[in-house]
Amino acid sequence: MKYSMMEALHLTIDPATHQVAPEHNRTKWAYLYLINEHPDKYRIFGQEDLNMQPRGSHLSENIILAMNRGQSGVIFDNPHHKQQLQNWGLTKHTAFTCAWQYLFPVPQQGVAVRAQSISQRLRTSPALKIGLQVRLGDFELARSKAWDEGLAAAYLNAAKRHIDCAEQIEARWATEYPGRPIQWFVISDSRNLRIALKNKYGTKIVTDDESMPQHVDCNNPLSKCKTAKNMQQAAMILAVADIITMSMTDAQIISLQSGFGRIGGW
Length: 266
Fold this sequence. Notes:
Largest sheet: 4 strands, parallel
Oligomer: single chain
Distance between the termini: 24 Å
């Protein structure tokens, strides 16, 4: 890429066509949109020459790929690209982490600024750590900051499958590692859920129950990044901090339909 990540983040995308808006130089920028698409759309990664994507715009200097279904790994079986990837020394299990560290070389500072105590607790604690990522939905981003104790039961019920799974892991570890403390690290698009879990389980829960998550996509109607100065950058730092801290856990429980949840595990 010949231009900065922040320049790319400030591009305007036409929500109707999912193409770079006309006011931008389309010889410089092209956009390949694969958010929540049908599984057939992702076959290009395993079968087609990606140098020819996106069709009609493949000669653009920079191509921005947006996808959230963890399907790009099939490129390692793609006859057009697998030898090149092998020559680079990449594997299906290391490529994602390699790309992440290249794109986000500074976020450790974001973790320190935003949640130094959390990351430090996980890094230095002798406890076994279970990471829970609970995705409730974009509607949670529009809720009030005020905590409502009357909603606690509803939030805990929404995370019941995650909690049940964590309790099963904890029970197994208690047998395998008797006497070893166990902590749960929780990330979620719902601040209220994080508060509810911390109130119920106490010090076993490690979470940021102060920050309000924001959507990093400025085209999302729930996002405030177009109206609040530096909101997009702050939201990105919060998200990256969650992912990095999640990667410090020993086991991860994620929401099935959340691409965000898979990143920390990888």
